[in-house]
Amino acid sequence: MKKILIVGSLNMDCVIETPHIPRAGETISGRNVVFTPGGKGANQAYAIGKLGGSVKMLGAVGKDSFGQTLKNNLANVGVDVSEISVLEHEPTGQAFISIDDEGENSIIIIPGANGALTPELIGKKEEYLKKNIENSDIIVMQLEIPLETVTYVKELAASFQKTIIVDPAPAVTDIPDSFWNGIDYIKPNETELSILTGKPTGTREEIIEGAKSMLHKGVRNVIATMGGKGCLLVNKDSTQFFESRSVKAIDTTAAGDCFTAAFALALAEGKSCQKAIAFGQEASAIAVTRKGAQASIPNRQEITETSC
Question: Which is the catalytic residue, given 13, 167, 184, 257?
Answer without folding.
Answer: 257
